[in-house]
Amino acid sequence: MKYFFSCLLVVLLFGCNEIDSKDERAVRKFVEQWNEAHTQLTSAYLARDYMDVVNYYGKQRSRVQVQQDKTLLFEQFPDYTQGILNDELIITKEAGSYLVTFTKHVSYDGIEADYESFLSVTMKNGVFRILREGVAESIKDLDAPIFPKARENIRILANTRQVFGDFDGDGLSDYATVISPNIVSSTNNEVKCKDGCNSVIVFSSTDLENITVEGAYQSQLENLKDLNSDGADEIGFWDIKPSSKTLYVFDATNGALLTEPIVINTTVHKNLKLIDVFKKSGRNKITVTRSAQVDGRWVLETEVVMLD
Fold first, then answer.
1. What is the rounded distance in angstroms from the CA atom of residue 289 to the CA atom of residue 275?
2. Does the residue 255 lie in any domain?
């Protein structure tokens, strides 16, 4: 009788949502494998389970950023393990995807805890990929060290230079650094990176969002001081290429560009320093100099930019 009611429950849960039993088994197997991959030895392969862009604990993240977070988790807690409590998964069909809810039992650093969790899974090119990962909104202890929020602003690369300043405007010093992509091949004409050549500026202040610069694989940061009189320092990002370098001027508090990227043709205009291409020239006013092609010749053009 108990077995009968268990079977009836399965029918009610999955039948009403029109999930084919074959699909349900496939989704279940995928989620179980994803869960089992959360070990120090196998976590390096988790990126393959995610879409290129993921809603990751309430924030949009790239597959690379998700993998970096998983790697950091096991660097901080090598003994971390997780399991699906009582092997119970509830799978419901959404538009083009499957919502999988379960209770995740975690163990780390002598601590054990349970969290109501979910994955949103879809099929791409014949294999399942994760669209969303997170926990129930009612959970109060998202500041626990196993969640992404606690790792967002850890210094990722020990050999990456930190730039210090007051980037959030709270009157206290914090720092910024860059997560650079992994270059897999490089020729005179093309550089290829694992999962795309994008760099991410991260801040030690938890109030600041990461800033992604697409197509950048070699970089340098600058503290540009407070340019728009909002009390916070702006961050400069040099995108360095073999024959050019481009300065991005970001408002660190919201990730907005304060001016068009400042491109310098380094083949023609060599040895230019920051002060040669960028300077504050008044209240909420900057002067920028960039390379421009005029009548077939490369020249330096200067303009004054008023900031809001």
1. 10
2. yes
